[in-house]
């Protein structure tokens, strides 16, 4: 079996901290985690090639954030969200927010300087990414945690809780995009075969 392309990330503990939803800057400074969302008890797993994986993104985000973001779903768990949306009259994006506990402040736009100039820009989930994995990867997997929305945002301090009667296993794939490493080819550009970006509007 070929080694996962991101194997090295699993010997670097900050990736698991990110999977747990914590802010790594705070963790590096004093060893204490401050954050929200993420996976309750991330467990490393192997992602088999030849399978499709899915994620939700915003059209306002840059390409590296859309395709290189670490949060993904396998087909079984993506299908849970799609089915929930159809059965209860939600859009796919609305169902994703409810089942994955995604505050309105997500997706974040910190990688896009144009968006940073628009403090009242409305974050949205309006894209679905479907990608065929062609190179072995590892991921952290598990059920999502509750997420605390920011007080000074559209969330107004709301606590988002993942649906409890229908649980979704989330995947955090470390190393797909690493800031500041350009012009080196990024991992997300090599491990997927022709990702399909579909508008949810």
Structural overview:
This protein has 201 residues and is an alpha+beta fold. It has one domain. It has six helices and nine strands. It has a seven-stranded antiparallel β-sheet. A two-stranded antiparallel sheet has the order 6-7. The termini are far apart. The relative contact order is 0.25.
SSE layout and pairing:
Layout: H1 14-19, H2 24-30, E1 43-47, E2 52-57, H3 63-68, E3 71-74, H4 75-88, H5 92-100, H6 113-116, E4 127-133, E5 137-143, E6 147-148, E7 159-160, E8 169-172, E9 192-199
Antiparallel strand pairs: 1-5, 2-3, 2-4, 3-8, 4-9, 5-8, 6-7
Helix pairs in contact: 4-5
Task: Name the features.
23% helix; 9 strands; alpha+beta; two-stranded antiparallel sheet; 6 helices
Q: Indicate the structural class.
A: alpha+beta
Rg, Å, rounded? 16 Å
The overall strand count is 9
What global shape is seen? globular
Measured distance between first and last alpha carbons: 40 Å
The total of helices stands at 6
Strand order of the largest sheet: 1-5-8-3-2-4-9
Number of domains: 1
The largest sheet, given as strand count, sense and whether it forms a barrel, is:
7 strands, antiparallel
Proportion of residues in extended strands: 15-25%
Range of helix content: 10-25%
Low-confidence stretches: 26-35, 109-122
Mean pLDDT, as a whole number?
80
**What is the N-to-C order of secondary-structure elements (H for helix, E for strand)?**
HHEEHEHHHEEEEEE
């Amino acid at each position: 079996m070929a080694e996962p392309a991101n194997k090295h990330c699993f010997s670097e503990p900050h990736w698991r901290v990110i999977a747990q939803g914590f802010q790594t800057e705070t963790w590096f400074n004093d060893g204490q985690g401050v954050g929200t969302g993420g996976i309750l008890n991330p467990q490393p797993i192997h992602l088999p090639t030849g399978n499709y994986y899915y994620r939700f993104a915003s059209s306002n985000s840059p390409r590296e954030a859309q395709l290189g973001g670490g949060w993904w779903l396998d087909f079984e768990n993506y299908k849970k969200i799609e089915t929930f949306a159809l059965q209860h009259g939600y859009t796919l994006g609305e169902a994703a927010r409810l089942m994955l506990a995604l505050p309105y402040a997500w997706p974040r736009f910190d990688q896009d300087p144009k968006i940073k100039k628009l403090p009242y820009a409305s974050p949205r989930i309006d894209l679905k990414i479907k990608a065929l994995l062609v190179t072995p990867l590892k991921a952290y997997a598990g059920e999502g945690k509750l997420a605390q929305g920011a007080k000074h945002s559209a969330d107004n301090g709301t606590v988002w809780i993942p649906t409890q009667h229908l649980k979704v296993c989330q995947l955090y794939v470390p190393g797909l995009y690493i800031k500041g490493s350009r012009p080196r080819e990024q991992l997300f550009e090599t491990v997927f075969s022709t990702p399909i970006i579909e508008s949810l509007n």
